[in-house]
Specification:
This protein has one helix and 29 strands. It has one helix at residues 3-16, and strands at 51-52, 55-56, 65-66, 71-76, 79-84, 89-92, 97-102, 108-113, 123-130, 133-138, 146-153, 160-168, 172-179, 184-188, 199-203, 209-212, 220-223, 229-231, 241-246, 252-257, 260-265, 277-278, 286-291, 297-301, 304-312, 315-321, 333-337, 346-350, 354-358.
Length: 360
């Protein structure tokens, strides 16, 4: 299940206050002093300043992750693929499952393996490229399945060093996997209360994780590097929230709250998380899914994929990312964005099929 489906469920929760239960749904606190960003980040009542044309990835059903070299991970009819944007080459890795993230080296994809002997619901897994051959490794879990939804890479080598997601116990339990040089080690993160559920959705190289409960409506969570849980304050008291991504510095979390795309922004990691600010003020629903090292945010606004770029002075400017004219309202979103440090700035996402955008 892609983040587009998660976002659609989260928006429905915000409107209907209904639950989205089960591993297949995978959806989607203390108030601190607000930073010096009292105004909305952009004037959402104005049209987007730029419309960026989508490029389809040949045969791709989804496009869910992209790294700085422009390598995209997603699904097609053969299973999991890797598509290289600069060379326009596609490789089927030979495994089925649900990919979620790719490391900067382009040799590790994380996600959920298809039903296995270990678990009929699917297990958290990584697919790794070595010697030109891809292999699948099931990650440690509680024996009842789960998924690894996010990757953090070593800033020097680009190799995957941390993963975040969830494992199944009697409840959905958030988890963080660390690479110890020879294998992945699972650390379970605290749930919100003995009967609570939670899913990890994003992680940075500092080991900070963000996510949400995603089973009953609806709170956004932050776990610091030590694993301490914070419930993030919603945009409007009592409204539903879900967190999807966190920047490398640990100072911006992107998400949706009260049915709109938002960002929690703090001056430093020593500060508490304040009430989030909306990325759009035009009344459209949406959600922010991912953020890169330069502060570029991607997600969904008004039923269409969108990107928000820093415009100076703490502001952001929204660009509409087009679909292919096939219009799937509520199911179209940008899923990921790279840093643009090797290949150009690239966002990937889903508009009824997997696509990428450049030039925004």
């Amino acid at each position: 299940m892609t983040r587009a489906t998660l976002l659609a469920c989260a928006l429905a929760l915000a409107t209907l206050a209904a639950g989205c239960g089960g591993e297949g749904a995978d959806v989607a606190g203390p108030h601190g002093s607000s930073p010096a960003v009292a105004q909305p980040l952009i004037d959402g009542n104005s049209p987007a300043n730029l419309t960026v044309v989508a490029t389809p990835i040949p045969g791709a059903t989804t496009a869910v992750a992209v790294n700085d070299a422009g390598r995209v991970a997603g699904l097609n009819a053969s299973g999991i693929y890797i598509f290289d944007v600069p060379t326009q080459t596609l490789q089927n890795i030979g495994f089925s499952g649900t990919p979620w993230a790719i490391d900067q080296l382009g040799t590790t994809v994380s996600g959920q393996a298809s039903a296995t002997k270990r678990n009929s619901l699917g297990s958290p897994a990584v697919w790794t490229l070595a010697g030109g051959v891809w292999s699948q490794d099931l990650l440690p879990d509680s024996g009842q399945g789960g998924a690894a939804r996010a990757v953090a890479s070593d800033p020097i080598t680009g190799a995957a060093v941390l993963l975040a997601g969830n494992v199944q116990t009697s409840r959905h339990t958030p988890g963080k996997w660390s690479w110890n040089g020879s294998g992945w080690v699972l650390t379970s993160l605290p749930r919100p209360g003995p009967n609570g559920n939670a899913f990890g959705q994003g992680i940075n190289a500092g080991g900070m994780v963000v996510g949400m409960d995603g089973v009953t409506c609806c709170s956004a969570y932050f776990w610091d590097a030590a694993g301490t849980l914070t419930v993030l304050p919603p945009l409007v008291s009592g409204s539903a929230s879900a967190a999807y991504g966190i920047n490398d510095a640990g100072t911006i979390i992107v998400a949706n709250s009260n049915g709109v795309a938002v960002a929690w922004i703090r001056a430093s990691t020593a500060d508490p998380w304040p009430t989030p600010v909306p990325l759009d003020t035009n009344g459209c629903g949406g959600g922010a899914i991912a953020i890169n090292a330069s502060g570029v945010i991607v997600g969904n606004s008004c039923g269409l994929p969108a990107a928000w770029r820093p415009s100076g002075g703490g502001g952001y400017t929204r660009s509409q990312l087009s679909d292919l004219g096939n219009h799937h309202p509520g199911a179209e979103t940008a899923e990921a964005v790279n840093n643009g440090t090797v290949a150009p700035l690239i966002a990937v996402g889903n508009v009824g099929q997997g696509v990428y955008w450049t030039g925004f």
